[in-house]
Amino acid sequence: MKIGQIDCGVHKVTTQKDSRGLIIQIHKIAIALVGLLLIINLSLNAQKKTVCGYIFDAFSGEALIGATVVSTNQLSRTYTNNYGFFSLNTISDSIVVSYVGYQSKKISVLKGDTCLNLVLNSWNEIREVKVTGHGKNYGISGISELSMKTIQSLPVIAGEKDILKSFQTLPGVQGGVEGTSGLIVRGGSPDQNLILIDGVTVYNVNHLFGIFSVFNADAINTAVLYKGYIPPRFGGRVSSVLDITMKEGNRNSFHGNISLGLISSKFVLEDNVNNHKTTWFLSARRTYIDLLLRPFIKNMADGAIIGYHFYDVNVKVSHLFNQNHKLYFSFYSGRDKYSSEYDFMGKNEEGLTFSENSNESLLWGNLTGTLRWNWLINPRTFSNITLIASDYKMLSNNSYSQQINDSSHIAKNTYDIEYQSGIRDLSVKWDVECSILPMVKIESGISYSSFLFKPDNNISSVSNMIDYNTIDTSVTKLYGTELAAYFNTQCTLWNNLILNAGMRINSFFVDNKKYFALEPRINLNWNLNKELKFSMAYCQTGQNIHLLTRSNMGLPNDTWLPSTTTIKPVVSKQYSCGFEKSFRNTIYVSTELFLKKMNNISEFKDGASYLWGNSDWQNRIEQGSGRAYGIEFMVEKKTGVWNAWVSYTLSKSVRQFITINHGQEFPYKYNRRHYITLVALFKPKKNVDLSASWVLSSGFWATLVTEKYYSAIDNYGNYFPDISNYGTIEHIESRNNFRTPAYHRLDIGINLHKQRKKFTRTLSLGVYNAYFKYNPLYIKYTNDGFKMISIVPFLPYINYSIEF
Amino acid sequence: MNLKHNLSLYILVVISVSCMKNIEFDTGEFSHQPVVNAIICAGDTAKIFLSYSFPSYDENGVPNQSEIDTAFVQISDNMDSIYHFTVINAHEDHASVYVSNLIPSVNETYQLRIFINGFESLESTTTIPNAISIDSIGYTVVQNDIEEGLSLQLSTWFKDPPSDNFYYYKFSISGGEWQPYWIDSIQDHGVRFVYAQELFDIYWETHDPLIGEINKFMKNRLPVFTDHLINDMSYDLKIDIPLDASSEIFNYDSIMFSSVLYSIPPDFYYYSESINQQYASRENPFVEPVPDYTNIKNARGIFAGISNSVGSIRIATSKIKAF
């Protein structure tokens, strides 16, 4: 197949014969793009003065991501990347560096090409809060960001600061089931969000079935959510990208934080060595609710030991070789484990000694690692090469043994059943940024990913009294390869009009099938004046892997699977436009309209079981289309002792499949027509933070059977008009035919800080669901009709931390 | 220790106030809806069954049927002939039975209209497809997959026409002089989908791609299938009876194998499939719910015209033994 024959955005299946040629062509395109950048860059090298460098926080030395760098003549503008790097071509003699929550700085650049290391001071020294961070936009639209200080201030369930739940307070982002971390972004499903930590995909973001996210807020530097224009450097999911960057470690001195919470504790340590050239960061968190509750559970469960815990560890090391070369290593490991153990010893009816032992365990978690090499080729060209490994695994084990001691021999029965599923992803990426003109910045890159899917692996062994042993092994492995190249151009067409245009070229190879897609993306931001901005965007995205899930609660048996011959990649096209108006740099009002069309989204067929069974998973899946549209509003007050925002999303999200629901359109489970959040942060004193958040939304949808009738066809498939042996049919008008009542909840919290000589201690108190609202978790059928089950009507928390 | 004690106490307090709670979920006031079961067969007297739906949590909540006992029921055909139905049996359990002098014909389109006091008019249309004749019925003895034994293989041959066709298949095996009771009475008593077998203890199986699923779900599936695998082809539906010394068929001098192949309209196929999926998944809480299908406006149920063809063969068991 020739590249020129490929329609934009349409995934096509190529033949085996074409695959090698296709790979070669994509390689050629990618290398050509990167090469082109380098050539252009070299040819323009001497024409303009280039100012480049890194911007850091003055206290911690952490990179400031998304800081604005603008020439004083306003002709050139750029933003720092994920490493705090910027490169600006300018003819001006000075630049201004600014970052939300930090004091701006003006720098003179009288010489030619200059590389700088700049530090900015936080506003924290004065009493204003200055913590919200929605002002950064990186020159693109549909982007949300919360500063870590804001996230630390918000009240949350059980006192565990949670990035994902904090994002649920922003427009266009909704939560799933009560209290869980799932993100529903602009009508998409939770598996359509690409969640990255230091560039690595995290496949399962939930601890404790979604009550907590796997991200330890103390280990995070920034978190940015792209929900409108998704830069082409990101691919693989169709709804949004949540790009999380871990802290690098304090570049100036040793620091730490120890936090004791109601159900978990954690610590953070960070320092530098080698004369500030090497930084390291270590954080760890573990629950101990199992240890505290074990005595009670043991009594209640008749001697059984039941336990649950999770932990996570974040490690990051960076080393600065010189101004041009920097190396980062990031590691994350998180595990959840549920286990139960039961032992019994006694005599059976025949008086023989009898012992029984039963063990069950369920273990799941992510393991990720990244090695990144920043290479500043020249002041205009920044390159980053990344090696990535990500592994998500779920392991269930169930073993039982029984032993009877006779005077003459020992009889023993045992069985052991092990179930595994998971996904492993090994990738390599090369990204290049190049500022070729004062007004033009180009990003380009290539990536190669190799996936191993292990959806349904069983190993069972049985042995019995006559020493008969059987071992059954069922192993399913699926391999997939993704090859992608991209480019993005950011042009300041004139002073206030910023154009981002790019394309991602994506190919996916699986099981002798190849899918190829072009994903064009364009975004126009028009800053009419300092207080009024307009934006519009078109973004096409594709997704080659699918999550088999029904609950959206982040259960560990949710399974990632690749596109196959019959299951095609998801394609999404999103159109959006909006404006933002500020009033005296204090009050910000913004709104955005969006329309998202999704094709090849997957859904379980009518009557299909969503637990693994004997039938092929592909036969239980139907692919169809989805549509989501809506309007988002946000009003923010960003400065002063009071900070607050109100967000409102009016939206609709529907699905349509040929064989599901008789082909009729039906609402998506989390199609919440109205979603309002109100967040207030108050800092009456330097050492006191008060916060409250209130959510009001339409309920979720469920399929309920409220009506039955008799058919003249009985349960055996026979038609008996003259006798009363009728079968009963459940009447279901359509899928998701009922909506639960409106959801609302108030959370409040207070942080009390006290500065000691060598440390600062913080006591955090708060309440989740302060006014005891019984919000539904799910609906169940009883003999008295339908009941909504609520589990968290009121949940206070307490947390104590020491920062040094 | 004191801290641990206090924390434990605190957790217990939290758990005690945060435990699960059932809250009423209002699904709105229930209103009974009319249900129509009207499967009319070419060459048979048409019958229509009317009943009411009831709340899912109250199977005894079927209301008084006075309205449906006095419903106005009519069917009209392409020639604008109108057939009025009268109630013959206010059914003691669930349904009221209506009959008329309509004897449907193949290729005819019929329009159903029912007026029940207090409800909007119920309307539907169906066209009776041509009966696809059974060309032959046969048998042979073949090697089966189970421990290299033998099976009696029963065949029903038919030719699928080029157009899209939907089928409903039933068969019967009876021993000795016993006749499947529906064979002679089919003209008199409307449509009868019979029990799968008259020899209730006999074991049978099928690996036929069309009716294999029927075997799998025989006890909770309507045996319907489409012709997408056999379009415009001659086809042989196969049923296998594993043979061994204890096989019940050897208790008789002969057995009779009978097949009925119904041609059904698409609506009946979709209706049957939705019921099939419901029955198959009813006991499993981990399945997606299945919306029921109807082709009747303002009602539940089905209005379908069907036609059938029958074939049967008597097999002497001595001939089977001879294999």
Q: Care to describe what's here?
A:
The complex is a heterodimer of chains A (804) and B (323). Chain A has 4 helices and 49 strands. By secondary structure, chain A is mainly β. Chain A is globular and about 100 Å long. The model of chain A is unreliable at 1-17, 125-135 and 721-725 (pLDDT under 50). In chain B, strands 9-8-5-6-7-3-2-16-15-12-13 form an 11-stranded mixed beta sheet. Chain B has a 3-stranded antiparallel beta sheet with strand order 10-11-14, with no helix packed on it. Chain B starts with a helix and ends with a helix. At the A-B interface, helix 4, strand 42, strand 43, strand 47 and strand 48 of A face helix 1, strand 1, strand 2, strand 3 and strand 4 of B.
Tally of contiguous helical segments of chain B: 6
Low-confidence stretches of chain A: 1-17, 125-135, 721-725
* Helix-residue proportion of chain A: under 10%
- Which radius of gyration of chain B do the C-alpha atoms yield? 26 Å
Q: Output the helix-strand order of chain B.
A: HEEEEHEEEEEEEEHHEEEHEH
Oligomer: heterodimer
What is the topological layout?
The complex is a heterodimer of chains A (804) and B (323).
Chain A: E1 12-14, H1 16-43, E2 49-57, E3 68-71, E4 77-79, E5 85-90, E6 94-98, E7 105-108, E8 114-120, E9 143-145, H2 148-153, H3 163-167, E10 173-175, E11 183-185, E12 193-197, E13 200-201, E14 206-207, E15 212-213, E16 220-226, E17 240-246, E18 255-261, E19 264-273, E20 278-287, H4 289-300, E21 305-322, E22 325-347, E23 353-378, E24 381-405, E25 410-437, E26 440-463, E27 469-474, E28 478-494, E29 497-510, E30 513-529, E31 532-543, E32 545-548, E33 559-562, E34 570-583, E35 587-604, E36 621-637, E37 642-656, E38 666-667, E39 674-685, E40 688-697, E41 701-702, E42 707-711, E43 727-731, E44 738-739, E45 743-755, E46 760-768, E47 778-782, E48 785-790, E49 795-803
Parallel strand pairs in A: 2-8, 12-17
Antiparallel strand pairs in A: 1-30, 2-5, 3-4, 3-6, 6-7, 9-16, 10-11, 12-13, 14-15, 16-17, 18-19, 18-49, 19-20, 20-21, 21-22, 22-23, 23-24, 24-25, 25-26, 26-27, 26-28, 28-29, 29-30, 30-31, 31-34, 32-33, 34-35, 35-36, 36-37, 37-38, 37-39, 39-40, 40-45, 41-44, 42-43, 45-46, 46-49, 47-48
Chain B: H1 2-17, E1 21-24, E2 34-41, E3 47-52, E4 54-55, H2 66-69, E5 72-76, E6 82-90, E7 96-99, E8 109-115, E9 122-127, E10 134-143, E11 150-159, E12 166-175, H3 181-185, H4 212-216, E13 224-226, E14 234-243, E15 254-264, H5 266-281, E16 300-316, H6 317-322
